[in-house]
What we know:
Layout: E1 2-4, E2 10-13, E3 16-18, H1 23-34, E4 40-41, H2 42-50, H3 58-77, E5 83-86, E6 89-92, H4 100-116, H5 120-131, H6 146-172, H7 176-189, H8 194-206, H9 210-228, H10 234-244, H11 252-255
Antiparallel strand pairs: 1-2, 2-3, 4-6, 5-6
Helix pairs in contact: 1-3, 4-5, 4-6, 5-6, 6-8, 7-8, 8-9, 8-10, 9-10
Amino acid sequence: MKFQLLGSLRVMDGDEVVSINATKVKILLATLLIRANQIVPFDQIVTELWGEDPPRRASAAVFVYVSQLRKFLRQSGGSAGPVITRAPGYLIQTGPDDLDLNLFLRLIEQARKNRRENLHHEVAELAHKGLGLWREPVLADLRESPSVTRFAAWLEELRIEFIEMLVDSYLALGRERESVGYLYALLQEYPLHENFYRQLMIALHNGGRAGEALQVYRSARETLLNEIGLEPGRALQNLQQDILRADDLRRPRLTVTRGR
């Protein structure tokens, strides 16, 4: 049995997706999977299910949900279920290949190592594979749980890091044309993310489109001022000046290193 967290919560029994219909049981499973192979205290489970105002019979309800989850996982995966009672709460036992999250984390760690060694082809390949694991926003229907909300925010930051590594690798490899359309689409999703503006300006300039690169800076400045009342950061301002001075923007300092 395998579990997928990079999108809606999925339980895989071979090639078949098996569904949990009860929202509270899904939140319980997500809470345990986020801390797989670690004990989740009983009180934390109550908070994840009901927040700071649990019902009077919350403890009894947790026992029912745990029982339902165990029954579901035993039916899908054989007689021995992975949910274990261990004071002061519960844990779910998973192997290293049972979670899509674990594969994603291994890929991003290897990509970081390859980036330090300037292995741009390898970084791009790993990023494509890692980003391909994402199906949709992480656990979007379970965000009433505090742990799920924090977990989703953490994973979104990792996803953005992987995207940045992919684009930096494209720029280092001279693949500006592929980068431009991708970055324009990303800015529709992340209009306040300055590093995507920086990468787009570099891609346009390196592709012989300096005027458009400067227009991107003006658009970034307008968006940031209108939305949050701030000027672009120093990295973006310096890049604008580099373009105006027609500096060589293919230097690794600007095309590979993330401009924070």
